[in-house]
Structures are given as structure tokens and as C-alpha cells.
Request: fold
Amino acid sequence: MVQVKKADVREAILASAFQLFSEKDYASTSLSQIAKKAGASTSNLYSYFPSKLDLLWAVLRPWLFRQIDQLEMELQGIQDGRQRIERILFVLWGEIPAADNNLAINLVQGVALSKPEDNYSRDLLLYLEQRLTVMLKDSLPEDRQGLLGENDAFSHLAFMAFDGFVLTTRVKGRSKRLSEIVRITTDLLLNGTPPD
Reply:
């Protein structure tokens, strides 16, 4: 019975954090606000999540995984390589940054506000880069796959751009140039000169 209660409290904290991060953002949400909304004390919250950053990752990791899972499922129905690449980039740079009231801004804020003692881990980013590389490789002809570089280099660049699109979405809404940027990037991948 105690385990059920602990799981319920943890889930209430996660639900509260998700709602407040969506309504406000990481920087504007305090742990005491999250605890209060979850019906828990702040000290109780710390027994589940050692830091605000840990709580943020616990909220964002499954959310980001769902976004990528949905994209992968959608790609199963798209056979044309160009359309697949365009869809991947449009989702990454347009839809995910705008989803759930710009929830992705919390990722950017969390990293920007983290301190060395927060032990920020790049594991989530590296995992997402690997998944993006697989989707892109599955969409490109074999002779074009070298354009993605080694060690998920193109995907790393794409996620650095993602941060910029997240910020733009927060301040101005979706970039009016997104369609053109997606087209240019797709053209570069399909028509650029592959490395030797």
C-alpha cells in the first residue's frame, strides 16, 4: 500500500510540473508551486526529485519521446524521401517547439539556467540525435547518407537549430520562414555534394 501512495505522489508531482511548465515556464515556476498544486510539501518533492532540473527531465523526457515516436509512426506512411525529410524537419523545427503551449522552451531554459553542480547530462540530447539520424538515413538514398556526417553531426546541428526555433516560437510564434528553411535544408541533403 505504501508503494501505491508513493507512486501516486510522484505522478501528482509530475502532472503538476507538466501543467505549470506548460502554463508558465521553467524559469517562472517554483518547486513550492509545483508541490502545492500536487498536494505535497516541497520537502516531500525533494525526496522524489533532488533538483528542479531533475524534475524537468522527468517531465520532458517522456514528452519528447512521445513526440519522436509519433513522428516515426507518421513516417511509416510516407514513402517519398523528400517528403519524409521535409516532415522530419518541419516537426522538429515547427511542431515540437509549438506543442503543448511551447513546452519545449522549458528544455532551453533548464539547460541555460543549470549550474555545474546540477550535473546536467547530455544523454537525452544524444539519444534524440541518434533517433533523428536513423530517421534521416531511412529517408535518404544510400549515396547521400554521408552528408549526415559522423557521430550524428547533422542531427546535432539540427537540434542546435531546434533551440533557436523554440526561442523564436516563444517570442514571435512559428517562424514565417520555416517552410523555406525546411526546403533549403532538404535540398542540401538531397542535392549537396557527399563527402568522399
Observations:
- The chain is about 75% helix and 0% strand.
- The two ends are 62 Å apart (CA to CA).
- Residues 1-49 form a domain with the Arc Repressor Mutant, subunit A fold (CATH 1.10.10.60).
